[in-house]
């Protein structure tokens, strides 16, 4: 009886080894899906940046009004607890703020006009000093400058005495005459635009102060149906309000200290219009990184024009730099750390980015906007990496 043939079982391929997450040699890559996700994120960021740039004329007054409402709301809330209506307290507070600003500008107007009127004489003095220095300079740099002047003069003489080729018409380009009406028109349009923005910010601040916590309650209401969503929204709004108010208080205190200290130091050194310089230092201190550089450079230049000595210019610039260094590296970081825990590198890059988008207003509003972004990202699961990147 024939036995059935026994076939050997076919060798089966071993099952694929699963990637061990603990083993760094096994790495799984998901190419197409991750590339599409990254491309979508990049396109979204570019669209948001383009929208912010395009809508800057609308967004900047809105953000300034929101910042003013955050700064003034504690005062209005306190007056409301004293049985004073919000409409009256907000109106009186805004009018007082505008009146105080106008009175300060009026008080320093005479000194500012004298400073501006002295600029032509100062420029003439600087030009004469440079001419005397260049005439008495026997160094290599002076020789090179003289040689350059001789070459330039020779080129001009050659261009004026060179004969014109036959059949070639010589063309002389004349600069357009100075037309003061164009400058007056552009200045008038700029002034009207500034006045319009001030009016918009004033009314927006008043209406926000008048609304009180209406928008806060509406945001909590539409946050979600569950109590968890409402609780997270309340926490985010509380953190945003507290951080912005503390940040504005820190900036106001720092500006007052810098302005008073700078004015007194310049007065002690004998610099003219020290009060104007103190006021300018306090105002420009609100612009991160750039305001202090402008005050230091301008004060050093004016000191050189006034005293005519490089030592006094270095002394004035050094005092201004010392004050801003102490304020920027010791006082403000310590106080700001109490307001929010922000990464200094992320803050610096963010301020530069907002400055690129909105100019000077971006430099002023960059840090508060980043505080809002961080407070929101810390409470949204998909955005927590961004909050971690912005934090310390």
Explain this structure to me?
- The protein is mainly α.
- The chain has a domain at 32-130 and 192-212.
- 77% of the residues lie in helices and 0% in strands.
- The protein contains 15 helices and no strands.
- The protein has helices at residues 31-54, 56-81, 86-107, 109-117, 119-135, 140-161, 180-211, 214-222, 227-269, 274-284, 290-307, 310-339, 344-358, 360-377, 384-390.
- Helix 2 (56-81) packs across helix 3 (86-107) and helix 10 runs antiparallel to helix 11.
- The radius of gyration is 32 Å and the shape is globular.
- The relative contact order is 0.08.
What is the CA-based Rg, rounded? 32 Å
Largest sheet: none
Cα end-to-end separation: 86 Å
Rounded mean pLDDT is 75
Helix and strand pattern: HHHHHHHHHHHHHHH
Class inferred from helices and paired strands:
mainly alpha
Approximate helicity band:
over 70%
Q: With helices defined by DSSP (H or I, 4 residues minimum), what is the helix count?
A: 15
Question: Which residues sit in consecutive blocks of at least 5 with pLDDT less than 50?
Answer: none
Q: Tell me how many strands there are.
A: 0
Shape: globular
Percent of residues in beta strands:
under 5%
């Amino acid at each position: 009886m024939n036995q059935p043939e026994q076939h050997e079982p076919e060798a089966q391929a071993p099952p694929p080894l699963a990637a061990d997450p603990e083993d760094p040699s096994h790495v799984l890559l998901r190419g197409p899906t991750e590339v599409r996700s990254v491309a979508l994120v990049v396109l979204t960021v570019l669209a948001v940046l383009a929208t912010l740039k395009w809508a800057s004329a609308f967004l900047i007054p809105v953000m300034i009004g929101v910042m003013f409402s955050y700064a003034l709301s504690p005062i209005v809330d306190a007056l409301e607890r004293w049985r004073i209506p919000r409409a009256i307290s907000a109106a009186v507070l805004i009018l007082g703020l505008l009146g105080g600003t106008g009175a300060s500008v009026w008080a320093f107007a005479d000194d500012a006009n004298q400073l501006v009127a002295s600029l032509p004489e100062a420029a003439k003095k600087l030009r004469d000093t440079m001419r005397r220095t260049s005439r008495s300079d026997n160094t290599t740099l002076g020789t090179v400058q003289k040689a350059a002047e001789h070459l330039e003069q020779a080129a001009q003489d050659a261009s004026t005495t060179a004969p014109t080729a036959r059949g070639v018409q010589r063309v002389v380009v004349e600069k357009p005459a100075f037309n003061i009406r164009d400058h007056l028109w552009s200045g008038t349009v700029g002034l009207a635009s500034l006045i319009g923005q001030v009016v918009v910010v004033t009314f927006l601040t008043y209406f926000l102060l008048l609304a009180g916590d209406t928008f806060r309650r509406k945001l909590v209401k539409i946050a979600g149906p569950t109590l968890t969503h409402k609780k997270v929204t309340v926490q985010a709004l509380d953190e945003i309000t507290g951080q912005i108010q503390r940040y504005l208080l820190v900036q106001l205190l720092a500006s007052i200290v810098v302005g008073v200290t700078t004015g007194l130091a310049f007065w002690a050194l004998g610099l003219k219009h020290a009060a104007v310089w103190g006021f300018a230092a306090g105002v420009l201190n609100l612009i991160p990184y750039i305001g202090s550089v402008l005050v230091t450079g301008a004060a050093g230049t004016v000191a050189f024009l006034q005293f005519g000595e490089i030592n006094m210019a270095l002394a004035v610039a050094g005092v201004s730099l010392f004050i801003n260094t102490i304020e920027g590296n010791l006082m403000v970081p310590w106080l700001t750390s109490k307001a929010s825990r922000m990464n200094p590198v992320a803050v610096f890059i963010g301020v530069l980015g907002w400055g690129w988008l909105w100019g000077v207003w971006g430099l002023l509003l960059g840090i508060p906007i980043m505080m809002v972004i961080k407070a929101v990202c810390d409470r949204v699961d998909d955005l927590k990496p961004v909050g971690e990147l912005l934090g310390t």
